[in-house]
Amino acid sequence: MTYPALVWFRSPQPDRSWVVAAGTVLDAASPWLAAVDHPPDPRAGLCIRAGYVALRRIADFFGIAHERHPGPHDPISIARTEFDEVVDRMAEAGIPIRRDRERAWRDFAGWRVNYDTVLLRLAELTLAPTRRGRRTVPPSTTLRHGSPGGGRAVAGRFTPPRSRAEPRPVGGIVRRRRDRHPGRRGSPDNGRLREAGRSGIPGGP
Fold first, then answer.
1. pLDDT tens digit at each of 205 positions of the chain
2. Do 153 and 190 belong together in one domain?
3. Of residues 189, 185, 166, the one with CA closest to residue 176
4. Co-location of 104 and 189 in the same domain
5. Is 48:29 a contact under the CB 8 Å cutoff?
6. What is the span of the domain harbouring residue 186?
7. How far apart are CA 87 and CA 98, in angstroms?
8. Same-domain pairing of 106 and 181
9. Do residues 176 and 107 both lie within one domain?
10. Residue 174 φ/ψ, nearest 5 degrees
11. Which residues pair with 158 in a beta bridge?
């Protein structure tokens, strides 16, 4: 990853997330390939492959375990009833649907299995919002590579690295790094030091 800190960037809208957006795009392309009756179009397949490869690389960086070569019959988090409901709504909207619904389900599951696990684990890691608008709570995201990106693993969970600009407690008082150099321009201690120099009493009024 070129800039892993982007994973932690949040949308100003609490119900939006880059992980949810990625899942939306992939879950739009998968039913299109599996259930819609249309001429062959490679663009949707390329979209899915590019998406799950990118998600897997992010998961690898954070040490998230996932199956690198999932099988088409491996279980996924989407139920058959959910898939049928989506396909029914597509048919009601006038989208041509293939007659073999059983094959459509198998094809969809075969696409979804490529990104199902990594998508859910990244949603847990970033506290992405769920369908109910609440953010997920990471139960125990396993990290295999220590502390990626400068963070730390505690009890199987990942704590993002502290920002350099974040205030740090010093002697019971929260100060920023520039306060460590009282003589630097712009420091709130400059005036106090000048006054102390006039009176000859260190730290005096």
1. 677 788 888 788 888 899 999 999 999 999 999 999 999 889 999 999 999 999 999 999 999 989 888 988 899 999 999 999 999 999 999 999 999 999 999 999 999 999 999 999 999 999 888 765 444 433 433 334 333 333 333 333 444 444 444 444 444 443 444 444 444 454 444 444 344 444 444 444 4
2. no
3. 166
4. no
5. yes
6. 168-199
7. 10
8. no
9. no
10. -80, 115
11. 153
For residue 204, being part of any structural domain is answered with no
Prediction pTM value? 0.62
187 and 152 together in one domain: no
Question: How big is the chain by its Cα radius of gyration, in Å?
Answer: 26
Indicate whether 56 and 120 sit together in one domain.
yes
Q: Same domain for 150 and 179?
A: no
Q: Measuring CA to CA, how many Å separate 25 from each of 94, 118, 133? A: 21, 15, 18
CA distances from 134 to 4, 10, 18 (A): 24, 14, 15
Do 153 and 192 fall within a single domain?
Answer: no
